[in-house]
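Project outcomes to date are best conveyed with an example. Our students and postdoctoral researchers have been running inverse folding experiments weekly, and each run begins with a structure described purely in C-alpha cells. The record below, which covers 183 residues, was selected by the lab manager from last quarter's runs and is presented without edits.
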C-alpha cells in the first residue's frame, strides 16, 4: 500500500477517471494553471491538455456548463471551490441536473461529479450546515463523501451511474497522509 495525502488521493482518483474515459473532463476556478484550491489538481492540465478547463469566477456558469455537457454525453467533474458557494448554483443542480432524468422520462442522463470543500469538522455550526443543503437530495442517486483510507471519492463517484454525485472533502484533511490500496 502506498502512503499519500488526501489531496494526492483525490488527484489520483481524477487521473484514474480521465485515463479510463476520454469523456471525463475537469472544470472550475483555477483548476488548471494554478492546480486548484490547495493544489489538489496540480499537474493535471499538463497531463490532459484541453480536458482541464479554468473557468470564470461564476459558480452558476460552472454548474450550468457541467449540466449541459453531461446531458450532451460528456462526464464533467465540476469543482465548486467551497461548499459555501453551492447556494449560488442550486437552481442548476436541483432544478436541472437532478430532475432532468425525470423530466425526460428516463431518456436523459446527467453523469457528472461536483467536487467541493467543506469547512473543518468542529468549526462554527454556522459554517458546518452547508453540507446538508446538497447531500440529502432524494433524486440524486449518488451521495458520496470522500474517504481517503480507501482512496475512493471522485473515481468511485464517476463510475456509479448516470446521475449526479457530490464529493465532499474536509479542508483540514488535505495534507494528512494515509495508506491507500491504490498506487
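After processing, the design step wrote out the following sequence:
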Amino acid at each position: 500500500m502506498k502512503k499519500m495525502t488526501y489531496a494526492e488521493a483525490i488527484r489520483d482518483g481524477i487521473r484514474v477517471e480521465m485515463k479510463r474515459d476520454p469523456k471525463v473532463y475537469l472544470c472550475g476556478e483555477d483548476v488548471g494553471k494554478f492546480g486548484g484550491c490547495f493544489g489538489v489538481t496540480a499537474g493535471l492540465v499538463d497531463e490532459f491538455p484541453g480536458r482541464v478547463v479554468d473557468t470564470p469566477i461564476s459558480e452558476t456558469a460552472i454548474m450550468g456548463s457541467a449540466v449541459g455537457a453531461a446531458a450532451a454525453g460528456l462526464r464533467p467533474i465540476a469543482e465548486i471551490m467551497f461548499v459555501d458557494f453551492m447556494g449560488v448554483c442550486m437552481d442548476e443542480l436541483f432544478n436541472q441536473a437532478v430532475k432532468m432524468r425525470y423530466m425526460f422520462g428516463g431518456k436523459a442522463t446527467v453523469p457528472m461529479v461536483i467536487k467541493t470543500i467543506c469547512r473543518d469538522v468542529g468549526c462554527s455550526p454556522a459554517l458546518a450546515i452547508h453540507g446538508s443543503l446538497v447531500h440529502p437530495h432524494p433524486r440524486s442517486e449518488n451521495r458520496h463523501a470522500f474517504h481517503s483510507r480507501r482512496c475512493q471519492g471522485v473515481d468511485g463517484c464517476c463510475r456509479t451511474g448516470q446521475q449526479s454525485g457530490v464529493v465532499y472533502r474536509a479542508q483540514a484533511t488535505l495534507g494528512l497522509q494515509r495508506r491507500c490500496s491504490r498506487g
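Residues 52 and 164 are 19 Å apart (CA to CA). The chain has eight helices and eight strands. The training component of this project remains on track.
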